[in-house]
Amino acid sequence: MSQAIQIDLTFPHAWQAEALAARPLILPRRRFVYPRDAEEVERGALEVLVRPGQENFQPSQEDTQRNESGAPGLASETGESTVGRRNTHSGEPFLATCALGFRDPSAPTGIWSTPKPEELCAVAGGYAYLIDTNAPERFTMIRYRPVLRVLPIAAHGLLLFVGHHSILARGRDGEAWESEKLSDEGVEIAGLDDTGIHDGGPDGSAVAGAMLRGAGWAIQTDKETPFALDLKTGRRVA
Questions:
Q1: Residue 229: beta bridge partners?
Q2: Confidence band (pLDDT; 50, 70, 90) for 1?
Q3: Measured between alpha carbons, how far is 192 from 21 in angstroms, rounded to an integer?
Q4: Torsion sign across C-alpha atoms 169, 158, 231, 125
Q5: Claim: this prediction has a pTM higher than 0.90
Q6: Angstrom distance (rounded) from CA 15 to CA 3
Q7: DSSP string, 154-220
Q8: Spans of all domains in the chain
């Protein structure tokens, strides 16, 4: 794949993973294709070698260096991105072949840790797959096609998937919330406000809590409209 590969290990994770420049000549015994559709894989794929069972693995300083695009990760001269290559591992490795969504550079490709330590998030051209590394036959494909940005918020245990129109949040127990439509074409994230007080209660009362701020484009006015979401519920509060 020619797209830059992002690596983000914000959350503690119980696996090691290596994004390969090409499909290996010697394949591991365990191989899984996501989704289970050969036609989609023929358009291209992200090949990830996964080693499950490395408890409480944390990235080294070298692994978390930022690449030129500002995304955390380490890319070798061969085009491979590595995560935790120097660490010992347990569990039998497997090859995850993740079908490519779009070749547009705005659609991300890479590997993310998630709020669930045994779960790995692989994104290939905006197609996002959540893979249970202990049982790789179990996976979830994020319904946004494409996902335009993956945003971890560790303090709140959430991994956000930003699409063209809305935001989907995943927590340790699965989907936490989905926002209302925020934009007709493209959602911009401005930042997190951890000191916000807003009218978020069911009776309109003031509620203190973190807010995610951003903006979306409205086709009727041809203008960007700011928004603020209650990070706990995904409800729009401004």
A1: 212, 236
A2: low
A3: 35
A4: negative
A5: no
A6: 24
A7: GGGTEEEEE-SS-EEEEETTEEEEE-----SS-EEEEEEETT-EEE-STTS-EEE--EEEEEEEETT
A8: 1-143, 148-238
